[in-house]
Amino acid sequence: MGRDPARPVTTLADFRPFIHPEDVDRATDVNERAADLLARGDDYSIIFRSMRPDGEIRWLRSLAAVEHRDGVPTRAVGYVADITDSMRAELALREANRELLQEKVSLALEVLKDPLTGIANRRHLDAELPRLDAHSRAHGQGLCIALVDIDHFKQYNDLYGHPAGDAALRRVAAALRDTARHSDLVARYGGEEFAVVLPDTPDPVPLMEKFMAAIEALAIPHGGSPTGRLTISCGAIAALRTPLTMPQLFKAADEALYEAKAGGRNRYVVRSAVER
Q1: CA quadruple 257, 260, 261, 264: dihedral, nearest 10
Q2: Quick check: 230 and 216 in contact, CB under 8 A?
Q3: Contacts of 266 (CB under 8 A, 6+ apart)
Q4: Rounded to 5 degrees, what angle do the CA atoms 26, 27, 28 make?
Q5: Which of 86, 153, 180, 256 has the smallest count of CB within 10 Å of its CB?
Q6: Does this entry carry the keyword Metal-binding (predicted)?
Q7: pLDDT of residue 141
Q8: CA-closest candidate to residue 142, choices 208, 196, 180, 197
Q9: 96: buried, middle or exposed (CB in 10 Å: 19+, 13-18, 0-12)?
Q10: What is the pTM of this model?
Q11: Beta bridge partners of 120
Q12: Cβ distance 147 to 194 under 8 Å?
């Protein structure tokens, strides 16, 4: 412990300054610990940190056995061992394992993220759909599937180039994500198309209005569009206690999207599917 052997420690008060402040109460709680050990018939064992006079922190293990005379405990005999090297190795291993786990989690999240827009990708969407579907059915909640398509996006790329097209995709994705509720899942469905899963949403019209307004607020110029700016078309299916499967719901949402585009784009179409 870096102390002068010629100055013996005779009391707990003398010993407390040797111990790390976070461990001192636990390492010097002798009476309660002794009573517990005697009741269970166990030997004493504790790991704590010491504070050397030069400020170095060392890890110590204290072990002791209780001696009895005529069945009565009379004293404890033990020793303190320096286990700093092994503890540092163990802590380093724990930290390495923690960093490895964190890296695995980060990689797993990256696999589920669209690299261009940063929102969920198709793999993430496909993985979440069964859970969202089961939850909505179990709780009798409405589930809405919405498909969002950027209008005249090919012309946009032709006019401004693919880097500008990528930038536009990122801005649209961010606007949809920021407009959606916390419980909603916004994913890149493919190309310039996005999918939004809206749990507990029997009426998605207010959210469709917000999506349209959010993209309009971006005010991205588009010389190849009749409106002169980048717009979106949305098709949504609101399902409540319906026997339709997820593929059927997506098909219905796609048909609603087609109807919105056929109707002139820059609009949304909402259909409903209610069990009768």
Answers
A1: -170
A2: no
A3: 151, 212, 227, 231, 232, 233
A4: 95
A5: 86
A6: no
A7: 83
A8: 197
A9: exposed
A10: 0.63
A11: 113, 187
A12: yes
pLDDT, averaged across the chain: 89
Question: To which CATH superfamily is domain 122-274 assigned?
Answer: Reverse transcriptase/Diguanylate cyclase domain (3.30.70.270)
What is the domain class of 1-111 according to CATH? mainly beta
Structure tokens at 134: 């089961």
Helix 122-138 to helix 246-262 angle (10° resolution) is 110
Among residues 252, 240, 272, the alpha carbon closest in space to that of 137 is found at 240
Domain edges within the chain: 1-111, 122-274
- Residue 179 identity (one-letter amino acid): T
pLDDT at 71: 79
pLDDT digits (tens, 9 = 90+) for 223-232: 999 999 999 9
Query: Any bridge partners for residue 81, and if so which?
Result: 61
How many angstroms separate the Cα of 74 from the Cα of each of 65, 77, 264?
11, 10, 95
| Mean pLDDT calculated for residue range 243-263 | 92
Is 68 strand, coil or helix? strand
Residue 276: the pLDDT is 32
pLDDT digits (tens, 9 = 90+) for 101-146: 888 877 766 678 999 999 999 999 998 999 888 888 888 888 899 9
- Which helix (H) or strand (E) covers residue 54, if one does? none
Residues with active-site annotation: 192
